[in-house]
Amino acid sequence: MLKTHKIALDPNNVQATQFAQHCGYARVAYNHVLADFKEGLANGEWHSHIELNKRFNSVKREQYEWCDELNQRAAHNAIYFNFQDAVKRWKAGESRFPKFKKRSRGQSFQADAGRGTTIIEGQRIKLPKIGWVRMFQTLRHLGTIVKVVISKTAHRWFASITVDTFDNDTIVDNQHLPVVGVDVGINHLAVTSEGVYHQNPKALKRYERKLKRLQRQLSRQQKGSRNWHKMQSKIAKLHYRITCIRQDAQHQATTAIVNGASRIGIESLNVAGMLKNHRLAKALSDASLSSFLSMLTYKAERIGVKIVEADPFYPSSKTCSACGAKDKDLSLSDRTYHCSDCGHTQDRDLNAAINLRTVAVGHTET
Predict the structure, then answer these.
(1) What is the Cα–Cα distance from 74 to 24, expressed in whole angstroms?
(2) Of 53, 167, 219, 307, which one's alpha carbon is 20 to 30 angstroms from that of 322?
(3) Contact, 73 vs 111, CB < 8 A?
């Protein structure tokens, strides 16, 4: 089983500069072979990534003299993995034609030289041409290191380490645990059928005023100046903080739900369609419901908890969890469900979670 652990690095100034240089080298190699590939297509010729890599190696020391001091695997991996994958996706119709990479769109490079070539000892990792780099924590997974990708987010450098754990016995005995229904939303990140409410931190809303102030200050700076770059760095740090708060809440909620359930019932959300409602788009984006559901799904699959998805049109909120009657007049502003048939009164989200649990048990069809 392949598992990836993303760890924050603690490089010194020299190592941070070397990281940026290798990111630039990977970007240059990718753009070079993409331009060569496009030129070949214009002439009716198709060049494979292997041929493009050979053509790049024949001219790189003439056009890019500075590359001798860097790890050549950064360019090789950018061509063999990133470029090849982009072309495959384009041929399969999964994405558009590959675009040239820009420095402003993120910095990253694959640093390993193949399976089992990277050394990690405690809280440090050894990278070619760079040496030992300190990490903020140790690697949680044991096995053969398959891939190491160095990337930068805001002011921090990260190492995404993929490990082949050879561990397929991660299924745990959870038959004694209850079946749980999970209803996601904006007011609460998730509500379970057991009556547990996981709060939505609303990180963007909390820092929205500060973010607006920094963006106004950025608009007053001359583009490209030193103060302009300083303000950009501050804004990136604030966005990174917002992301960390949101992901921390999601990780805590999904881990608690998965560890306490034998089967989980969730609703199939068309988040892209929901975002077309401009009154709710910002709040939905702040909650990041797609990320929450995908996180819940992969954690459940890892330990053998079955996920049961209700039909997208299943009215979990409008169905009474006591008698099964449907209230077609229930609006989004009604936070309490009151059944006109049996008189059952319950919190709207909890009522939906109980209905999703019933679907997971298999007592009803959606």
Answers:
(1) 9
(2) 307
(3) yes
